[in-house]
Amino acid sequence: MKILSARIVATAAGREGFPPGDLPEVAFLGRSNVGKSSLLNRLVARRGLARTSRTPGKTRLLHFYRVARPGSDLVLVDLPGYGYAKAAKTERERWKGLVEGYLHGRGALRAAVMLQDLRRDPSEDETLLLEWLAERGIPSLLALTKIDKLKPRERAARLRAMASSLPVPADRVVATSAATGAGIDELWRAIDALL
Ligand code: GTP
Ligand code: MG
User: Fold this and answer.
1) In this predicted model, what pLDDT tens digit does every residue of 50-94 receive, in sequence order?
2) CA of 138 to the centre of ligand 1 (A)
3) Which of 33, 38, 127, 145 has its CB 3.0 to 4.6 Å from that of 178, i.e. a possible disulfide?
4) CB atoms within 10 A of CB 169
5) Helical H runs in 146-195?
6) Closest-lying ligand to the alpha carbon of 181?
7) Distance between CA 55 and CA 21 in Å, rounded?
8) What residue numbers bound the domain in which 190 lies?
9) What's the total number of domains in the chain?
10) Residues with CB under 6 A from ligand 1
11) Among the listed residues 25, 40, 36, the one whose alpha carbon sits nearest the alpha carbon of residue 60
């Protein structure tokens, strides 16, 4: 995928900070530390664009990245991660307000990419979010992350287990690695198929 340019256009703590929404948007959702910011950087081939960290809970605001490609521009939205152990109840409520404030009635939102670490079992959070998106008619993809951490044989077994435990059709599941770049072209094709 040829990327002409990628730059941040907004960092928002609420609706008032959202950009105009004149381009199709793709939102990246998932547990804290699952690799949302890393995958986004890989997709646009810009190493330091979205901040990544070993410390969960790094992305606490919504970040909007405008990506120019030959023929079709779009905006990738890095949403704050949920579910890190230290998060207090007030923090969880803040997350909910922030993310729902975006997902509810954002006309520009065309697709969501739900991330799930291939090594971990998904929780009710992933299922509920995927169902919530489906109910609102927002098509979603499942990006399995950090596949470089598993040997090929373990990978295949985990992939089968994952596909049957989450409500996503098989043709919307992509195995990825931000470390090696595996699955990146496939993820772009899957995203474009939904736009
Ligand atoms: P929050 O912003 O806290 O929600 O986290 P995030 O989902 O944006 O995760 P982030 O991209 O910051 O990555 C978390 C950690 O996982 C970092 O240490 C990354 O280097 C590492 N990581 C992300 N993707 C991969 C991958 O594909 N392979 C490997 N080996 N490590 C990865
Ligand atoms: Mg992040």
Assistant:
1) 988 887 766 679 999 999 999 899 999 999 988 876 667 888 888
2) 25
3) 38
4) 9
5) 152-165, 184-194
6) 1
7) 31
8) 5-194
9) 1
10) 30, 32-38, 52-54, 56-59, 80-81, 145-146, 148-149, 177-179
11) 36
For position 37, which CATH number holds?
3.40.50.300
Report the predicted TM-score, pTM, of the whole model to 2 decimal places: 0.95
Residues facing 8 on adjacent strands: 65
CA–centroid distance, 49 to ligand 1, in Å, is 13
Tokens representing 55?
A: 């410390």
Render pLDDT for 107-162 as a digit per residue (tens, 0 to 9): 999 999 999 999 999 999 999 999 999 999 999 999 999 999 999 999 999 998 88
Residue type, 157: A
141/116 Cα distance (integer angstroms): 11
Tokens 């598993």 belong to residue:
150
